[in-house]
Write a structure and sequence with these properties.
heterotrimer; A mainly alpha (about 90); B mainly alpha (about 120); C mainly alpha (about 150); A: mainly alpha; 4 helices; about 70% helix; flat; C: about 150 residues; mainly alpha
Chain lengths: ~90, ~120, ~150
C-alpha cells in the first residue's frame, strides 16, 4: 500500500516536472495569460466603472456572473454543513 | 543558471506542495489527515495561479494616475479575482468536509479509513 | 469550544477589539474601489469578529449578540441582494448583472456601475459573514458532544 502510494507520487512528480518545461518564466510580461483579456480590463476599467481597483471591477462587474456562482456555492456549503450535522445527530444510534 | 532558477522556482515549489498534498490524500489512513492533504493541494493550486499574474516591473492592479493605463505597468488582475473567490469557497467546502467527518465520527467512533469501511460493511 | 474565557484581560481586550474589527471590515468593504479589499475580505473579517466573541465571551453573551440562526438569514439576504441587483438591470432591458441598466436613468452608466459594484460587494460580504459563522457554529459547537 505504501509502495503503491510512493509509486503514484513518483509518476505524478515526473509528469508535472515534464509539463513544467512548457510554462512561461515567472514574471514574463509576454506570458500568454497576460496577453488575452487582461489588457482590456486594465485599459477600460477606469473609464467603464470609475473603479481604480481592477480586482474589484473585474470581480463584481466584468465577471459578476462568476462571482454570483461562487456566492451561491458558499451559501450552499453553509447550508450543507448544517444539514449534514442535523442528520448525523438524528440517527446517531442506528 | 541563477536566472534560470529565478524564472522556474515557483513551479518547483508548487510541484513539491502538490506532491505533499497528494501524499496526504493517498497514503494516510486517517480521514482528517486526508482532508488536510486536500487543503495543502488546494493551497498549492492557489499559489500557482497567483504567481501566474506576476509581471516584472509591474505593480499591484490598482490604477495609479502617475503610472498611466499601460497594461505592462500592472499585474494581471484575473488570477487575483479567481483565487480571491476560490479561497473563500475552499474555506466553506472545508467546513462541509469537517461536518461530514464529524458525522462519520459520531456514527463509527473512529476516523480510520479501514475501520470505518469494516464497520460499514458489518452494519450493512 | 464556546465557553467564557477565565481571565479578565482577555475578556476586556476582546470586548474592545471586536467593534474595531467590525469598523475596519466596513472600511474594507466600502473602500474596495480604491484599495485592496471588497466583499470577500470584509465578510471574512466580520465573521472573525463574531468568532472572537464566541471564543471569549461565552455561549450566553455571544448568542445574545449574534443569535445562531442569524447567520442563515444574513447569508440568504446577501444572496438576495446580489440576485435583485442582477434582475433590476434585466427589468430595464439590459443583460443580467449589467449595472449600467440599473433603474436610475439620470445617472451616467459609469456612476451606475460604480454603485452597482458597491451594492454587490455588500451582498457578498453579508453572505460570506453569515456562512462562515454558520460553519463555525455547526462544526465548532458539536465537538463537545462527540
Amino acid at each position: 500500500m505504501k509502495a503503491l502510494a510512493l509509486a503514484i507520487l513518483g509518476i505524478f512528480l515526473v509528469v508535472l516536472l515534464y509539463a513544467e518545461g512548457d510554462l512561461p518564466d515567472r514574471g514574463d510580461p509576454e506570458a500568454p495569460a497576460s496577453m488575452h483579456v487582461s489588457p482590456y480590463y486594465i485599459e477600460r476599467s477606469l473609464s467603464d466603472t470609475r473603479t481604480p481597483n481592477l480586482v474589484t471591477a473585474v470581480l463584481a462587474d466584468y465577471r459578476g456572473y462568476d462571482t454570483l456562482g461562487e456566492t451561491v456555492v458558499i451559501f450552499a456549503a453553509g447550508l450543507a454543513s448544517a444539514l449534514v450535522l442535523l442528520r448525523g445527530r438524528g440517527n446517531r444510534d442506528t | 543558471m541563477f536566472e534560470e532558477f529565478l524564472g522556474r522556482y515557483p513551479y518547483f515549489m508548487t510541484v513539491i506542495l502538490l506532491a505533499i498534498g497528494l501524499y496526504g490524500m493517498v497514503a494516510k489512513r486517517n480521514l482528517l489527515k486526508k482532508a488536510i492533504g486536500m487543503s495543502i493541494f488546494q493551497s498549492a493550486i492557489f499559489l500557482f495561479f497567483i504567481q501566474g499574474g506576476a509581471k516584472w516591473g509591474a505593480t499591484v492592479p490598482v490604477i495609479d494616475p502617475q503610472r498611466g493605463m499601460d497594461p505592462a505597468q500592472y499585474m494581471n488582475p484575473l488570477p487575483h479575482v479567481l483565487i480571491l473567490t476560490a479561497i473563500v469557497v475552499s474555506v466553506a467546502t472545508t467546513g462541509v468536509s469537517l461536518a461530514l467527518l464529524l458525522t462519520i465520527y459520531q456514527r463509527y467512533r473512529t476516523l480510520d479509513e479501514k475501520q470505518v469501511l469494516e464497520e460499514a460493511r458489518r452494519k450493512a | 469550544m464556546i465557553h467564557r474565557y477565565q481571565g479578565v484581560v482577555v475578556e476586556l481586550v476582546s470586548r474592545a477589539v471586536v467593534p474595531a474589527i467590525q469598523v475596519f471590515a466596513l472600511y474594507i468593504i466600502t473602500h474596495g474601489h480604491y484599495s485592496p479589499g471588497g466583499g470577500f475580505q470584509g465578510g471574512a473579517l466580520l465573521a472573525a469578529s463574531i468568532l472572537l466573541l464566541r471564543f471569549t465571551q461565552g455561549r450566553k453573551e455571544s448568542y445574545r449578540r449574534f443569535p445562531p440562526g442569524a447567520g442563515f438569514a444574513l447569508a440568504a439576504l446577501g444572496l438576495l441582494i446580489f440576485l435583485l441587483v442582477g434582475l433590476a438591470s434585466v427589468a430595464r432591458g439590459g443583460s443580467f448583472l449589467d449595472y449600467a441598466y440599473l433603474p436610475w436613468p439620470w445617472a451616467s452608466p459609469e456612476t451606475l456601475r460604480y454603485y452597482g459594484i458597491l451594492v454587490v460587494e455588500a451582498g457578498i460580504a453579508l453572505t460570506v459573514w453569515g456562512t462562515l459563522v454558520v460553519v463555525f457554529d455547526q462544526v465548532g459547537t458539536r465537538t463537545r458532544d462527540v
